TrEMBL record:
Source organism: Phyllobacterium salinisoli
Classification lineage: Bacteria, Pseudomonadati, Pseudomonadota, Alphaproteobacteria, Hyphomicrobiales
Domain of life, per lineage: Bacteria
Domain EAL, residue spans: 24-274
Protein name, per record: EAL domain-containing protein
């Protein structure tokens, strides 16, 4: 192995890198053999109206309770799952699990579920979503699929066709992490998105970077003129909330109101915040 190189030979792998590589390998193996239903959980982060504070729904976020490592972040395991093909069964499980839970929430609370570009590539995604809706009994209008623009970059024609079929069935489509990709404006012409999610990197700086504020303002304005809802991601401070309110942003999610919570805490949030006008901070 490279780290056993003798004197004078360049060490390609620093010791820490080697640890990362072996961690990754073992996560890969653990993911392949994991019993999803016992190790994975759907957590839910509330999404609220900026103006009224009314609860609109939740974004489902996957959690891996690893038997020996504890909680592993999706930032770590989703890319591994995508590269090893495991994302298909994980993603299918998530669609079923999140729809099943959402079906028990009062109408019209929504659930937003992240879908990987790899799931689009694998084929059969439409059927997976239809199955999840049918088995759960969730109305398609209460499901929002979150995609990133790489879905459209990947295989424009096939993926756009699939997105259109989902829209025809009533499912809503959101463009996640908006503003971080390449040529976002082009996609808005190609597909009638229902929602733009303003990336956290802009929201975070909305108070101290005039550029970030200008970008957030432009995205909200664009959404308003195209009839597309806007959600600010990662709202952490009351000052950010005030600013978003002044800019007439539609919805928000963020630690200011609540982090993603385990499913047993969802009912409490619904009980406290559904249907009543309450200020979010
Ligand atoms: P995302 O879809 O953009 O989700 C938002 C992320 O921001 C979540 O991280 C959430 O916990 C975090 N977040 C929310 N509010 C705040 C805040 O106020 N401050 C900060 N610092 N962070 C906040 P999480 O749960 O770690 O997920 C990370 C990413 O992993 C997601 O980004 C999404 O791209 C991916 N992911 C999570 N669950 C799934 C899934 O079921 N399927 C797929 N394909 N990807 C998933
Ligand atoms: Mg998302
Ligand atoms: Mg996002
Ligand atoms: Mg993200």
């Amino acid at each position: 192995r490279a780290k056993r190189s003798s004197k004078g030979v360049v060490r390609f792998f620093e010791p820490e890198m080697d640890v990362q590589v072996s961690t990754r390998r073992s996560l890969e193996m653990d993911l392949r053999s994991a019993d999803i239903a016992s190790q994975f959980e759907a957590h839910f982060q509330p999404i609220l109206s900026v103006q009224s504070g009314i609860l609109c729904g939740f974004e489902a976020l996957m959690r891996w309770r690893h038997p020996s490592r504890g909680m592993v972040s999706p930032m770590e395991f989703i890319p591994i799952a995508e590269e090893t093909g495991q994302i298909d069964r994980l993603g299918r499980w998530m669609l079923h699990e999140a729809c099943r839970q959402a079906a028990s929430w009062p109408d019209p609370l929504m659930v937003a579920i992240n879908v990987s570009p790899v799931q689009f590539r694998s084929g059969g995604l439409l059927e997976v979503i239809e199955d999840a809706l049918r088995l759960s009994g969730l109305a398609p209008e209460r499901l929002e699929i979150e995609i990133t623009e790489s879905v459209i970059l990947d295989d424009s024609a096939a993926n756009l066709a699939l997105l259109r079929q989902l829209r025809e069935r009533g499912v809503r489509i959101a463009l996640d992490d908006f503003g971080t990709g390449y040529s976002s404006l082009h996609y808005l012409k190609q597909f009638p998105f229902n929602r733009l999610k303003i990336d956290r990197s802009f929201v975070r700086e909305i108070d101290n970077s005039p550029e970030s504020l200008a970008i957030v303002r432009a995205i909200i304005g664009l959404g308003a003129s195209l009839g597309i809802d806007t959600t600010a991601e990662g709202v952490e401070t009351a000052a950010q909330l005030e600013r978003l309110r002044a800019e007439q942003c539609g919805e928000l999610q963020g630690f200011l109101f609540s982090p993603p919570v385990a499913s047993e805490n969802v009912a409490g949030i619904i009980g406290a915040y559904f249907g009543e006008e309450k200020r979010v901070a």
